[in-house]
Amino acid sequence: MTEAKRTTFADRLFNFSPGPAVLPVEVIERIQAELPTLPGVGSSILEISHRSPAFDRILEETVAELRGLLGVGNDHEILFLQGGASLQFSMIPMNLLRGTGRSADFLLTGTWGATAIKEARKEGAVHVAWDGAATRYDRLPAVADVRLSDAPAYVYMTSNETIQGVQWQTDPDFGPAPLVCDASSDFLSRPVAIDRYGLFYACAQKNAGIAGVTVVVIRRDLLERCPDGLPTMLDYRTHATNGSRANTPPVFAIYVLGLVCNWVRERMGGLPGMARHNAAKAKLLYDVLDASDGFYAGHARADCRSTMNVTFRLPGEELEKEFVAGAARRGLVDLKGHRSVGGIRASIYNAMPMAGVEALRDYMIEFQSARQATAAAGRS
Ligand SMILES: *Cc1c(COP(=O)(O)O)cnc(C)c1O
Predict the structure, then answer these.
(1) Contact 93/225 with Cβ under 8 angstroms?
(2) Angle CA 172–178–184, to nearest 5
(3) Are 107 and 155 in contact (CB under 8 A)?
(4) CA of 1 to the centre of ligand 1 (A)
(5) Fewest C-beta atoms under 10 Å: which of 34, 95, 203, 278?
(6) Helices 53-70 and 251-267 meet at what angle, rounded to 10?
(7) Could you read off the pLDDT of 169-184 as tens digits, one per residue?
(8) Which of 86, 117, 341 to mutate to test the pocket of ligand 1 (most atoms within 8 A of CB)?
(9) Which residues are the active-site residues?
C-alpha cells in the first residue's frame, strides 16, 4: 500500500450533501480515537464478532439511546435492518399488505413517496389518498383534504420529502389504521409522537449516521399480521425474534448510530434541543429567501418548509451553475438540487453546524447583491 496521507479536521469543508451527509465532528473524533481498538477490547469495531460481548453492549446501548430519545415504550420493537430505506418500500407491503384484501393508502407528497408506491403496487391494492402533483409537490395536505379508503391496511406518509424540501410540521392523525412513516431525512431532528405510528422508519445516512443500517420502529401487534411464507430475511418477525441479529448486522453502522444518538442526547439537548437548533438554522436561510424579492424562489410553500432540505431556484440555470461553483470556491459544497426539481438544495441536517449555515447565508446575500449590481451596471 502507498503511505497514508494524513488529513485533519481543519481540512473539512461545509458539506451540504443530501446523503450520505455530514456527521458531527465529535462523533468522527470519537471514531478516530477508538478505531485502533475499542477501549478494553483489543480489536477494532471493524473487526469484532457481531456475537461478541463488546457488540452486545453496543447494540443494547444503541437501542436504549433510541428508546430514550424517541420515547419508545414496550408497545414497539426497534429493529436494525439492511437494504436501506428502499428495501422498506418492499418489506412494508410484503408484511402488512399482502393477502389482506385491503388497500395501502398513500399520501403522495414527493419523489420518495412515489417510489414507495411503485413497490407497494406489486404486493396489493394502492389507493392514493392525496397527491401533490398538481402543484409540483410544493405543499402538504390539510388532514381534511385526505380521502382515505374504507378500511386501509395502513396509511403511508413521508415526514420529510428530501428532494422537494417539504416537511410535515406535526405528527398527523388519520384515525385507526396503522400509520407508516418514512422519516429517513428528518429522523432525530425533532420530538416525535411515536405512539401515533404503527411503523416508523429511517435509513441512517441522512441524519443519524452512515449508510448500512435502517432503523425500523414497529408496533408489536403489527408483527402478528405478517403473512407466513415470506423470505426469511424479509419477514419483520425474523428480525424481532433475533434481536436484529438473524444474520451479521452492519456492526460499524450500528456503532456510529449509537454515537450519533449519544451526541444528540448529551451535546444537543435531546430532540427538543435538536429541534430548536434546526429551526434556528433553517430560519437563517428562509429569511434570505423571503427578503430576496424573488431572486431566490423557494420551492416549498412557506407553511411546509423543511428544516432539513432547503430548496430554491435562481433566475436561470446559468446563474444556478454560477451559484454552485462560487459556493464551492468558498468551501460550501454539494449544493446542487436534485435533477427532478432543479435549482439549489441546501441539506442542513442535525450535524451541519450553525457556522456552516451562516457562511451559506452570507454567500447568498453577497451573490445576490453582486448579481444585481452587475445587472444594473449593464443597463446604465
Ligand atoms: C434517502 C431517502 C430514501 C432512500 O434511502 P436508501 O437508504 O438510499 O434506500 C428513502 N426515503 C427518503 C425520505 C430518503 O430521504
Answers:
(1) no
(2) 65
(3) yes
(4) 35
(5) 34
(6) 40
(7) 999 999 999 999 999 9
(8) 86
(9) 112, 182, 206
Distance CA 194, CA 277 (A): 21
Query: How far is ligand 1, taken at its centre, from the CA of residue 253, in Å?
Result: 16
Burial letters 326-348, b for 16+ CB under 10 A, else e: ebeeeebebbbbbeebebbbbbb
Question: CB 205: neighbour CB atoms within 10 A?
Answer: 26
Cα–Cα distance measured from residue 164 to residue 342, given in angstroms and rounded to the nearest whole number: 10
Asked if 29 contacts 18 with a C-beta cutoff of 8 angstroms, the reply is no
Which CA distances in Å does 229 have to 91, 102, 104, 232, 243? Answer: 13, 19, 20, 8, 20
Joined grid coordinates for residue 175: 384515525
pLDDT band, residue 379 (cuts 50/70/90)? confident
What are the grid coordinates assigned to 363, written together?
A: 454567500
Helix (H, G, I), strand (E, B) or coil at 127: strand
| Protein residues with CB under 6 Å of any ligand 1 atom | 19, 84-86, 112, 158, 162, 182, 184-185, 203, 206
Nine cell digits for residue 288: 434570505
> Phi and psi of 141, rounded to 5°?
-80, 155
Please list the residues that pair with 106 across neighbouring strands: 128, 156
Question: What's the DSSP call for residue 80?
Answer: E
At 101, list the grid cell: 384484501
Cell of residue 358, nine digits: 451562516
d(C-alpha 66, C-alpha 254), whole Å:
11
- Using the predicted structure, report yes or no on whether residue 219 has a pLDDT greater than 80: yes
Q: Which atom of ligand 1 is nearest to the CA of 161?
A: 13
| Nine-digit cell string for 204 | 441512517
d(CA 351, CA 171): 23
Is 370 in a helix, a strand, or coil? helix
The rounded distance, in Å, linking the Cα atoms of 137 and 139 is 6
**Residue pLDDT, tens place only, 8-61:** 999 999 999 999 999 999 999 999 999 999 999 999 999 999 999 999 999 999
Domains defined along the chain, listed by start: 28-266 (3.40.640.10), 270-379 (3.90.1150.10)
Stretch (H or E) spanning 360: helix 354-379
- Beta-carbon contacts of residue 141 (< 8 Å; ≥ 6 apart): 107, 109, 130, 132
